[in-house]
Amino acid sequence: MTHTSNHLNGCHDCNMKFNGFDTLSELQLNTFKDSHCKVEYRKGETIIKQGARCSNLVCIKSGYVKMHVEGLGGKSVIVKVLKPGDFIISPGIFDDNKNHFSASAITDVNTCLISIEAFRKVFHDNDNFAESVLKHNHQLMQTLYHQLINLSHKKMTGRVADTLLYLSKEVYESNTFYTTLSRQDMADLSSVSKESLIRILKDFKDSGIVVVEGNQFKIQALNTLQNISKVG
After folding, report:
1. CA distances from 3 to 110, 151, 193, 224 (A)
2. Do 113 and 180 lie in a common domain?
3. CA-to-CA distance for 178 and 213, rounded, in angstroms?
4. Model pTM greater than 0.70?
5. C-beta of residue 58 within 8 angstroms of C-beta of residue 37
6. Could you tell me if 30 and 144 lie in one domain?
7. Which of 158, 176, 198, 228 has a CB 3.0–4.6 Å from the CB of 218, allowing a cystine?
């Protein structure tokens, strides 16, 4: 069950460093403080719904979130896995004011929600903060382009290799990691079926490339996995 609280310390006292927030003045931090509330989401809950109106800047304080695009027939493609220190702002805020992706809690998640009105005010008043937000959305577009190229040109083994490398480098920052992503989530991140993902992981395990024990992964042959990623 989602839990909401407005009783928070000021943004100045937050121990989580969000990209671009260090450029904010005292007045701008207070603008965020006056509009925000703390929201806790349980594993599996929807944080942002594709097609809904943009309403908040979502700052992730703890837990992991999947950003995914919902297609026809209920199929979903995971674009990115977000972790503490990341924030979510839909590109639709600059266009049609709609969310063009969904975001769901992979684990229990603690967030701070900042109103769109407060965000817009600070965005227009602070060039450095605006630049950091535009860079953030540009990186998201690069991720989408990268996934489109992989889907068009890489075989399934290359896409699964990309997923393991992405989780290792970008999300968990270790060649040994435990993930709360389900096998279906990993398949959606790789744009393959769940059955294909399981088969390819078994092949990687049997070849000594990756040790897999439940949701615990250890990349043993990093160079081999990188070569599989390159050749697709």
Report:
1. 9, 38, 34, 45
2. no
3. 9
4. yes
5. no
6. yes
7. 176
- Domain span at residue 126 reads 3-151
Residues 46 and 73 in one domain: yes
The structure tokens listed for 192 are 């393959």
State mean pLDDT over 64-82.
84
Same domain, 24 and 135: yes
Q: Determine whether 145 is exposed, middle or buried from the number of CB atoms within 10 Å of its CB (0-12, 13-18, 19+).
A: exposed
> Would you say residue 140 has pLDDT above 90?
no
* CATH code, domain carrying 55: 2.60.120.10
Q: How deeply is 156 buried, as exposed, middle or buried, from its count of CB atoms within 10 A (0-12, 13-18, 19+)?
A: middle
- The model's pLDDT over 172-199, given as tens digits with 9 standing for 90+, comes to 999 999 999 999 999 999 989 999 999 9
Angle at 74 between CA 69 and CA 80, to 5 degrees: 25
Closest among 62, 67, 58, 61 to 115, alpha carbons compared: 58
* 21 and 85 together in one domain: yes
Query: What's residue 43's pLDDT?
Result: 94
